[in-house]
Amino acid sequence: MNDQELVNRRDFLGIGMGVLVSGVVAPALGGCSSLVKKKKANVLWIIADDLGYGDLSCYGCQDIQTPVLDGLAATATKCGRFYAMPVCTPSRAALLTGQDPQALKLESALVGSGGWSGTTPSAPSFFKSQGYATALIGKWHLGYSGESVPNARGFDEFFGFLGGALHYYNHTGRGEHGQIGSLQHNGTPVHQEGSHTTALFTDRAIAFVRGQSASETPFFLTLAYNAPHYSQGRKKGEELPLDTYLQPPQEVLKLYAQDPQNPTLRELYSALVHDMDQHIGRIVTALKETGQYDNTVIMFMSDNGADLGHGGNSGNLNGHKGTLTEGGIRAAMIVKPAGSQMSGRVCDQVWDIRDIFPTTTTLAGLKLKDSRVHGSDESPSLIGWHLGRRQDTPRHFKYGRERAVVFGKWKLHGRLGADLIEKLSLYDLEDDPIESQDVSSQRPDIFRKLNDSWKKWYRPYAEARLQEAELALEDNRGQVERASTLPDGAEGDKAKAEAARGMEWAQNNIAEQKVWIEICSAVAP
Question: CATH number for the domain including 214?
Answer without folding.
Answer: 3.40.720.10
